[in-house]
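Please, structure for the following, as tokens.
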Amino acid sequence: MLVSPKVILRLGAVALVALAMFTAACGDDSNDPAGSGRLRVVATTVQIAALTREVGGDRIDLTGLIPAGADAHEFEPVASDLTAIEGAALILRHGIGIDDWLDDTLSASDARVVTVTDGIDLQRGALEDDAEPSDDDHGKGAFDPHVWHDPDNAKVMVRNIADALADADAPSADAYRAAADGYSATLDATKAQIQDIIGEIPPENRKLVTNHDAFGYFARAFGLQIVGAVIPGISTQAEPSARQTAALLDTIERERVKAIFAESSASPGLAEQLARDAGVTIVDDLYGDSLGEPGSSADTIDGMLLANARKIADALK
């Protein structure tokens, strides 16, 4: 009897959950959530982990699942991730398609799950129309998940994280909310700095072609125009057709685009080839789906946003 690939994948996920639970049960005391006396928190993405670190500090025991430098669109959990989920008291997830893989793993945990993007004014991909997504879209045309590229959206995430931590750890509620207020002020200052940086770009040059459609919220927040993307979608898993690539070359020439921007977490090969064909600059180290490595100047949301703004401005002046 033939077994479908979907069944095989589901069986594999079940096996990983079982392995994670066995590992947690057989490990030493350092894996015991009660061992540290701190709230055990799992953040699904590197962006949520960075924001949670700002709010929770050393009051929490934080595990981030998707690491810096990884493509969130291609992430798959491993046994150690499922062990962390099984032992968590609180799971902070992104939603909007980025961490749908979590749905099949929640059976391993009794943790409270909070979607930290709740309350954000979502938009479609910058290159799509304004129609509402339908159940038949199968991801195409769905809401753009890259909300953290707008500091105001990041502030909503910070508030949701603080509320979730406060609910889970009431004695520290005031400390969490004070930290959230402090980092929200940092994001306000970051927004003002970016506005000044982008203001140095001549208005006629404020046009972006990116590797994939990841910067729509940034463009909306800071007065930039997305005129094209090498990969035609909000996921790096999409593939352009020859006709779409030819049309993008025409757009670059017609709009007098000065540069193509690719992300550090995605292969820039196609973007580099397109830049050569178009005779424009390639910037291949923007932070689209990820943050900088720990200890870098871009390992926080505010640092990442400023780094991107400077690179964009330098290429478009």
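The beta strands are 39-43, 60-64, 90-93, 112-115, 207-212, 225-231, 259-263, 281-286. DSSP finds nine helices and eight strands in the chain.
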